[in-house]
């Protein structure tokens, strides 16, 4: 009964959303009266919310007559995970996505007033376009309320054990807040193509920064989750799924920088609109890659050619439609200015250029296997991580190079004041090298590149903050930006150090045996077992001694078995420390009673996610400052 | 572009490896099913030996490292490494982990056809 109601609500939301889009389009092209559609936005959000709650209800009450619940839950699953299991699969995660999208729609229409109903309707209609496409896709080929009748499953297959985890419960919602948030600038940009000019540049800038913050947090959570939950200590794999989130992130980063120029200088207007469209195209391509199963990935959804085809058509349809609106429009820069080589305009132009190139080559490497397969008569290839490292690091280096001095430049023309910048740059550089030797006695090329980037960015940030320090308002205006840039430097520090100074050893240990890695001695003390409601596991107790300080601590990695899905999970044990994580994961227990384990040290890895958190906070601060505090 | 050319790993089924072996200095991926009762382990190191089959041909694989959780006999596997024709042996440096035990990599599915 309840699932059917949920389904009907979805259909109602789909119908209402389509009507909103069509009626606005009709009114626009036939030049007739516009009806206020604000209320329908609230109604759609309400319908989707109830529909979402009904699916949650099915999960919490173990209604295995619903196919999606049967495939993703189990009676023994803790309630907390039953709740988050809703977004553990394809159908439910899409429902969460449209719910979040409708939330952004009402948040946007609530907070942004347009003086003309017509203008507001036009912008909202592009929300409805995306929303109705996705709702149609859910209803016709990915319905989470589909029944498993006449014979319902008795126990359900269980949620994938990897997803029974805290980071996973918040990672998809954050990511979707980011993706769906990018529909806001998309709608404003297309609205601008249809002559809705009211504050469009500042709206694009603010809302892109806001959704970018969530996207940053979502990606970082995914990386953190992969690090401890996949069991082997990697934090980024250049997997198609990860790349699909990185491409929109880079484009969104370019977008709000371009929107800053459009807003302050009334130039780059067409470029800002193009980027807003590309962000959404990037999101749709990502959705297609992840959800069609066309690429072999460590964490893709199940394969389904039909869904893939529909998503591909949707991607093409939305791309063509947006470009049609864009090319038919007649947007010009409202200002003609000449800017010199040392000006904020020029530096932001370079920033945009490199960010878009970076996004393009990552996308290229990600989809290259698809084209290769088509043009080589079905030969399969994969593109290795070395490709991505080789092409991204130099570009990131140039980005940092221009980012550092860029924050100090002024509009139009600014005098080249290299002296204070160079002084701070060189002292930061010297300090970093000194500390690098102090801590690691070593300096690799990769770490050196990281240190140079870090010094460049920080020199800009410190100098900018210092100059504005006494200027009150100005300081707070640039605080968000400086915090986010500082975050990037922190992340780069983490990446540089962990990539060059990580250490690992694969060992076979009997009870009582010890092994050394760097400054640590690992002793396998004993083994143990434990049983939970939905899994049981074998535990190995390790005592780890820090030989430098003489301190010891215990780590208890596990090997868990989940009977419902017959799957085995490696639960790593990590001693968390800013200077260095100590990481143990169990591989398998041999018939002789010995354990095969992997022990690792991961210096500075926390800085990668700390930096992302600072970027997020910086973005949220900048948004809040611009929108609420004037 | 050349960065891309040097870093692509072509996929081979055991039959492909027999009919059309690649040169031993190119990293490739090989996949199929782990042949039943083929897994051997060196007792005092992490060295492992097993065979990959596509039910028509079989190749020997050596690997020095940890096996992913879902590595099982009779299940799909994709290994990355180098193939040596003279020894008819595939030296893997990476064994692809698959999280979902019902999930068969699409290359493996194709190799079994």
Describe the structure.
The complex is a heterodimer of chains A (630) and B (113). Chain A has three domains: 1-159, no CATH class; 162-416, no CATH class; 503-606. Helix content of chain A is 63%, strand content 12%. Chain A has helices at 2-30, 38-60, 67-72, 79-84, 90-111, 117-141, 166-181, 183-193, 200-229, 240-265, 269-292, 305-328, 344-375, 385-406, 418-440, 445-467, 473-501, 605-627; strands at 381-383, 503-509, 514-517, 520-531, 536-546, 552-555, 558-562, 567-571, 573-575, 580-589, 595-603. In chain A, a hairpin with a 4-residue loop joins β7 (558-562) and β8 (567-571). Chain B is 16% helix and 39% strand. Chain B has three helices and seven strands; from the N terminus they run αβαββββββα. Chain B has a single domain (2-112), classed as OB fold (Dihydrolipoamide Acetyltransferase, E2P). Chain B has a five-stranded mixed barrel. Chain B has helices spanning 2-6, 14-19, 106-112, and strands spanning 8-12, 28-34, 40-41, 47-53, 58-64, 76-84, 89-95. Chain B is globular and about 40 Å long. The longest helix of chain B has 7 residues, at 106-112. In chain B, β4 (47-53) and β5 form a beta hairpin.
